[in-house]
Amino acid sequence: MQIAVKDLDPVQNYHLLIQTVLPRPIAWILTANVNEASDGRAGAFNLAPYSFFAPVCAEPPTLVVSIGKKPAGPEKDTYVNLQRDGRCVVHIASVDDLPALNDSSATLDYGVSEIERQGLALCAEPGWSLPRLQQAPVAFLCRYQQQVDIGPQAQHLVFLEVEQVWLNDDIATTGPRLQVDAAALNPLARLGGSEYASLGELMKRPRPA
Q: What is the DSSP secondary-structure string of 64-133?
């Protein structure tokens, strides 16, 4: 099957991409709403998953996430909060987090907190103004670095510089080189439509000299 993408509309191209670029990691992003309270209550924070997401640089450690618009056209809450505040926490969810992650993808009015609605627990991070999700095994504490807008609808490619990382002790070991146990992390992956995936079989192949 040969497909000329110029003959497809944006929705068709979107579904083509998400069903073929597989599996994709998911950035589960926490940001502070404009009504952020100093007591750190859950209702002050927004939480949303994004699977157009990847690491792109090691110096400085940088992630990129592609953020579109809400179905009705306004900017997504994550982007609004990043533009105002410049801070976020990017979580890597495990397979056990699927129910909460999927529920957090619902389109809600600004200021309605997914964390508060689901009763998710937060943990304060020393030296950082935002909390992280207690249940997620990995959390990147990030600052907005820059963005590139693509296309007529201004899809935002947002670059986030990682300043601190939190890892659950159960998935990481220290030594000459930090090692994260992928099976213990058990990361959740995004497929097309309503499909998600786990890692399945792990395979090792030494890199050729």
A: EEEE-B-TTSSBPHHHHHHHHH-EEEEEE-BGGGHHHHHHTTS---TT--HHHHHT--EE--TT-SS-EE
What is the Cα gyration radius of the chain?
18
Q: What is the rounded CA–CA span in Å between residue 170 and residue 137?
A: 9
- Whole-number Cα distances in Å, 69 to 109, 115, 151: 13, 21, 12
Q: Quick check: helix, strand or coil at residue 138?
A: strand
The residue whose two tokens read 């670095």 is 145
Phi/psi at 78 (5° precision):
-55, -45
Do 48 and 133 contact (CB within 8 A), yes or no? no
Contacts of range 35-41, beta carbons closer than 8 Å, 24 or more positions apart:
35/111, 36/85, 40/122, 40/124, 40/131, 41/116
Q: Report pLDDT digits (tens) over 19-72.
A: 888 999 999 999 999 865 444 555 689 999 999 999 999 999 999 999 999 888
Confidence of residue 2 (pLDDT cuts 50, 70, 90): confident
**pLDDT for residue 157 is more than 60:** yes
Quick: pLDDT tens for 107-126: 998 888 999 999 999 999 99
